[in-house]
Amino acid sequence: MSHELTRTLTELLPQIQGYIYPNEIEVHWGLLIVVYPYITGIVAGAFILASLVKVFNVKEVQPLYRLSLLTALSYLLVAPLPLLSHLGHPERCFEMFLTPQPSSAMAMFGFVYAWYLMAVLLIEIWFVYRTDMIAWSDEESGAMKWIHKVLSLFSRDRSESAISFDHKALKTITIIGIPSAFLLHGYVGFIFGSVKANPWWSSVLMPIAFLFSAIVSGVALVILLYMVITPLTGAKINMKCVDKAIDFLFYAVIVDFTLEFVDFIHRIYQSEEEIKILSEMVMSKLFMSLVIIQVLLGMVLPLGIIGVTKIFKKRFTLNEDLRKMLYFISVLLIQFGIFTMRWNVVIGGQMFSKSFRGLTTYKMEITGIEGLLYTLVLLALPLVILTVLLKILPPWKELREEGKDLEGGTPGTLPATEA
Amino acid sequence: MRDVLAFLLSGGAIGGILKILPSSALAKEAPRKGKWYGFGVSVDKCIGCARCMEACKTENDVPREPFFFRTWVERYIIRKDGEAVVKAIEPNVEAAPDTSGDRSILRSFFVPKLCNQCADPPCAQVCPVGATFQTEDGVVLVNVKTCVGCRYCIQACPYGARYLHPVTRTADKCTFCYHRISQNLLPACVEVCPTQARIFGDLNSAASPLTRFRRMNKIHVLKPALNTEPKVYYASLDGEVR
User: Fold this and answer.
1) Between chains, do B129 and A196 touch, taking CB under 8 Å as contact?
2) Taking the CB of residue A199, how many other CB atoms lie within 10 A of it?
């Protein structure tokens, strides 16, 4: 018997309001399970942004293409870690692949994940970088030469027909990739949405709401990374690209907001058995994280800021630095908003008793595997992986040159002068 | 490769997909043959002595801390203004506070709770590795050797009947004392109940005490709207109980 667990749970006893079933005092899915849908969401969102370029031919966001693919990969590699760390017996996790239960949403997620990693993301990145890797390995010497040689799987063909095949393959993979990305994060939503015992989770809108919040968080993160990384490499931020990406982000946030609002209205109007305890929970336990952070700071405020830059377009196009700053603040706020959305779903779903008679409470630990420090490591890890990936598979050419081409190629619409 | 194709075409894969829809595909099977265990609770007979809770913890090595229960007893006090005060009674407490003089109380009663051993158990449906399973005689068990401790089953149980065992780090819950009933003994809680508020038996046997209990009483189950088809049947269950 872990002494620490007893102590923590005993501390929680006086904070229970009303009646909860005696087994319900332990919050079983903590911070790690909050991180898991957050990270998976970024993967799906970043991929959707990449597919804008390849499938929907949105040329303006081309500079973000490779960056978003690499972002998706680095987050995808970390995605299983919070799940694995949270298991009571992580050493048995392979059972999910060896003897999966076909009726379990969680077991099937492993296969969706593997499909997405192996069949979509890795292959797409390989085709994108194939010719570059050949060129690099020709120029380089030492370890990097061999890294690129191995990564390109020793392919040497740079003929015209090979390159056109690459393009065709890319298009096909992206077309398969979009429903796969939807599947990946829709499935995460389904893991929660299909739990009929929990009225806070059980909703058909859950997978769709998860999907759109995923697109929001992924697009916002790639914009954020682009705005931070580009100046570090000495290049200039291509505002035409950022403007376009922010456009998409704006509409995605509106859809996401609408979905959550519909869910909210639906619950209030139907006013079923659980409505009393849920409204009590929202007004007390979740007021800060749901009403203030997720809705007001994470959605309404950034929507307002971006809306203002759209309405007073002329004034803001002249002052590029101001626009940059406003965008930067908005994407940061949106990032926090989506993280708290995951928090409100996962933790919120365990704050009320399934007897609908009481509320329990969640005390975040600092150290330990469920603690804050480990979570911060998990959140930083994708950025470390991304740094390594950027070293091995640099997207700079695209970030700089294609950006320049765009500016030079279509002059007039947006003056790209320094303010 | 040919084997894989043959498997896909043979319908094995389709069977797997159908299993995702258990409530429609599995619940309404033909009546089960052989033993099909169930449980009866006579709410009016329970005096809240907590001997069942004590016996369960002892018999099944349930951690003694008050956060882990395979069975527990709730005390309901319904006031005249309609307010319901609910509390899980604590074992080893001398007696419940005397409320006989309290004129604001309309009615009060005890309700024993345990795993409902659902015929269509959501916990078994969500288990990613099949560690939670239903035996042929209708008892839902957890295999401690394969449970990965993901706790999805704890989330999926509408009755709060499961907990994560702090020592084995696997999911745990009432087994109807499977080690006892397979030797024709009664579950520990039934054995010690001084008022026979708990009844155990085979639903398929006309002679079992449970069948008699179901014949003699008006029966209700917990949260029937969730379609889990509980096999713990309550007599004289109050509408306030969830």
Assistant:
1) no
2) 20
